[in-house]
């Protein structure tokens, strides 16, 4: 199994470089477990699937803490058959795929319930792509059922689902969508957008 | 068939609102064919699959023309089984799926060759997701073969492929990846990032 993300931070300010640089220390607690590489388009993190969303939550939270409108955009992937297995990616938690679909949804909801509160309100949207499996719509519908009961469900949009709420719960919901739905060894990808401090009215 | 995109523009300046608003007229030539809806997270466009990337190219080009570092991020989708058919989405051009894989790649390359030059250099990366088909890696590899010969191939990255070059050719390559690969009626999604005027060295 190989898991990781390509993510970018977009602080909507002329001072975007110092905002990004000053937030990078938020990744320090994860550096031992994650491989981290940055270029001019995005930052790659490779490591345990259940570590990816907490790392992105903490980085986006740090970049957003001074009130700047800041967006995190990420392509998150696990099980891509084009990538070699990597022991670094061994999950931290037991498999989220044991049991029936109802039990999987209940476990995912319990994980969201246990998420720490951050005090930062965010809006997010994500697309869930389980690849290479004929039953892909079943996993999508189960994931949507989970998200609707997560406490941060916003609304269904074309091509994606909107979430609103505390960043702790929103990132936990995204993380559970990623690890708990789609077959255990399947290639699953998420396209994620998280926005803080937008001056626009919410849609 | 239903086709469209959720995209966002991220101008990295404190004046991001006027930059976005002043670029919207670039969508005027497309308004008759596209359904366009905006909220605080993204803009939805729904219409012919072959119209989506030209519209995003023109909008991103308009927002980037004064030299501001500006990123377009988009989730682009066709054939999602959760969306109803829409006559608005009837393709403008004949099917890009006639013929063998070699012929499909040659036709896609010819379309890129015919793309107008914009004078704006961009860096881009994209992930290609053909959904619900057991042969999804075949279509991914064919798409990668096409992209490597597009003249704007940058490099393979984890989870995505990088492009560099004139925005005309880069968006044409993305558009051909979207319409010409993945089965004709399959659910195909692209996760796209296009960046102009970055102060960072290219990766």
Describe the structure.
Two copies of one chain form a homodimer. The first copy, chain A, has a single domain, classed as Alpha-Beta Plaits, CATH 3.30.70.930. Helices cover 32% and strands 29% of the residues of chain A. The first copy, chain A, is built from five helices and eight strands; from the N terminus they run βαββαβαβαββαβ. In chain A, β2 and β3 (43-46) form a beta hairpin. In chain A, α3 runs parallel beside α4. The longest helix of chain A is centred in the N-terminal third of the chain and has 16 residues, at 49-64. Chain A is globular, with a radius of gyration of 16 Å. In chain A, 53% of the residues are buried. The mean pLDDT of chain A is 92. Chains A and B meet through β1, β4, β5, α4 and β8 of A and β1, β4, β5, α4 and β8 of B.
Précis, in short:
The structure is a homodimer of 203-residue chains. The first copy, chain A, has five helices and eight strands, in the order E-H-E-E-H-E-H-E-H-E-E-H-E. With 203 residues, chain A is an alpha+beta fold.
CATH architecture of chain A: 2-Layer Sandwich
Low-confidence regions of chain A: none
Count of discrete structural domains of chain A:
1
Chain pair with largest interface: A-B, 55 and 55 residues
Mean pLDDT of chain A: 92
What is the CATH level 1 assignment of chain A?
A: Alpha Beta
| Largest sheet geometry of chain A | 8 strands, antiparallel
Q: Treating each run of at least 4 consecutive H or I residues as one helix, how many helices of chain A?
A: 5
- How much helical structure, as a percent, in the residues of chain A? 25-40%
Question: What would you call the structural class of chain A?
Answer: alpha+beta
């Amino acid at each position: 199994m190989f898991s990781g993300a390509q993510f970018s931070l977009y602080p909507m300010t002329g001072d975007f470089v110092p905002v990004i640089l000053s937030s990078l220390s938020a990744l320090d607690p994860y550096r031992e477990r994650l491989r981290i590489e940055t270029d001019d388009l995005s930052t790659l993190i490779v490591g345990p699937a259940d570590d990816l969303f907490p790392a992105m939550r903490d980085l986006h939270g740090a970049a957003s803490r001074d009130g700047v409108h800041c967006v995190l955009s990420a392509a998150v992937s696990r099980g891509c058959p084009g990538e070699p297995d990597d022991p670094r990616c061994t999950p931290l938690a037991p498999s989220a795929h044991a049991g029936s679909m109802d039990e999987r949804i209940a476990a995912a909801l319990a994980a969201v319930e246990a998420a720490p509160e951050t005090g930062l309100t965010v809006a997010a949207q994500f697309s869930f792509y389980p690849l290479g499996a004929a039953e892909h719509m079943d996993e999508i519908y189960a994931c949507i059922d989970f998200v609707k009961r997560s406490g941060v469900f916003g609304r269904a949009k074309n091509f994606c689902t909107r979430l609103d709420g505390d960043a702790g719960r929103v990132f936990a919901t995204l993380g559970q969508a990623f690890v708990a739905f789609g077959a255990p060894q399947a290639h699953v990808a998420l396209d994620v957008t998280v926005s803080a401090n937008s001056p626009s009215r919410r849609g």
